[in-house]
Amino acid sequence: MMATLEHTNFTVRDPKASAAWMQKVFGWKTRWEGPAIAGGYTVHVGSPHTYLALYAPSDPKPSGESSYDIVGGLNHVGVLVEDIDATEDKVRQAGFKPHNHADYEPGKRFYFEDDNGIEFEVVQYD
After folding, report:
1. How far is the C-alpha of 119 from the C-alpha of 126, rounded, in Å?
2. What is the value of pTM for the model shown?
3. Contact 8, 77 (CB under 8 A)
4. Share of the chain above pLDDT 70, in %
5. pLDDT tens per residue across span 24-62
6. Fewer CB atoms < 10 Å away: N or C end of the chain?
7. Do β-strands 107-113 and 119-125 pair in parallel, antiparallel, or remain unpaired?
8. Is 56 in a helix, a strand, or coil?
9. To 10 degrees, what angle do helices 15-26 and 84-93 make?
10. Which residues have CB under 8 Å from 97's CB, separation 6+?
11. Residue 51: exposed, middle, or buried by beta-carbon count in 10 A (0-12, 13-18, 19+)?
12. CB neighbours of 95 closer than 8 A, spacing ≥ 6?
C-alpha cells in the first residue's frame, strides 16, 4: 500500500492573503480556517484530497536565512498543473516573478517565490 501526502503546514505572514493568491493561481479552495496554536491563525487551502496549512503566529518574524542551509528547512513546494503557460500568466498577475524555467523528464517546470519568501516549483508533465 502506498502512502499519499495529505498536507504540509508552514508559517506565513497572512494566511488569508496567501490563500487568496493560491486560489487565483492554482484554483484551490479554502477547506477550513480558524484559531490555531499559540494564539495564531491557520487557513487550509487546496484540493479535496491535499492541502497546505498556512499558519501565522500572533507575532510573525521573518527568518532571513536560506532554507537550503538549514537541516529541516522547507526548500520549495512542488505543484503539478495541467497548463503551465496559463499558470505562469496567473503567477505574474499575482505579482510574482517566474524564473529557472526548465524542460526535462518528466516535464516542464519553473519556480517563483511568494511574498513570504517561500519557493514554489510549478510542474507540467509531458
Report:
1. 23
2. 0.92
3. yes
4. 100
5. 999 999 999 999 999 999 999 999 999 999 999 998 777
6. N
7. antiparallel
8. strand
9. 140
10. 112, 113
11. buried
12. 115
Distance set, CA 60 to CA 23, 41, 117, 123 (Å): 23, 11, 13, 30
| Mean pLDDT (whole number) for 74-91 | 96
DSSP-assigned letter for residue 40 = E
- CA dist 121 and 126 (Å) reads 16
Q: Which residue has the cell 500568466?
A: 89
53: amino acid identity, one letter: A
**Structure confidence at residue 47 (pLDDT):** 95
Distance (Å, whole) CA 108 – CA 47? 22
From 70, 72, 77, 84, select the one nearest 5 (Cα to Cα): 77
Distance CA 14, CA 21 (A): 11
